[in-house]
Amino acid sequence: xxxxxxxxxxxxxxxxxxTCGLALALKKKGIDLGVMKPIETGAxxxxxxxxxxxxxxxxxxxxxEICPVQFKLPLAPLAASELxxxxxxxxxxxxxxxxxxxxxxxxxxxxxxxxMVPIFQDxxxxxxxxxxxxxxxxxxxxxxxxxxxxxLSYHYAQAIGLRVLAILINPLTEETGLTExxxxxxxxxxxTDTPVFKTPFITDKQDKLAYGKGxxxxxxxxx
Length: 223
Description:
Elements: E1 3-8, H1 15-28, E2 33-36, E3 39-40, H2 48-57, H3 63-66, E4 69-70, H4 77-83, H5 91-103, E5 106-114, E6 118-120, E7 123-124, H6 125-131, E8 136-141, H7 146-159, E9 164-170, H8 178-190, E10 196-198, H9 208-222
Helix pairs in contact: 1-2, 1-9, 7-8
């Protein structure tokens, strides 16, 4: 694999945390990484996720390569571009990814929201993953509704020919209960041809050591 596309069942499910955790695990092995957030909305005054990646992973690429397309409004890219009256193309995304793929050992690409978030009228986030020819990892927010959202994302991905490497159930709080435990067990029963893992809860997003406790083993098994 030249890289992986990290998507989610929704926005706010922890894609950035998971991407950082997996990237730190590979970096620890001496792998030269590229990381992209191709489109970031809510970038007001700056693209927070892209800056987080640059700082945490000590990335040499400038921010405009880590995140080629930015919008101020926290909306789907299609909606943000229309309301901001800002036209854009995929060219800077494709060009930057091609450059990273040639220069780096492995490239992480984090999508915005879920697979069916619209980028253009007839072009979704899932189509971008397909265009970049990357397998995907689906990050699930471990909460009520997670099973439904996961199955919808998983089966849609399969329907359009995306290879799903793994499903990562990400805790949104430190507390766990019946819902959180049930989601993991049920998804393991319902999805038998793709590995399902739990990710660790990171209390401090800046604590690099905390990521290694849970993400190194996951990275070894799926990347």
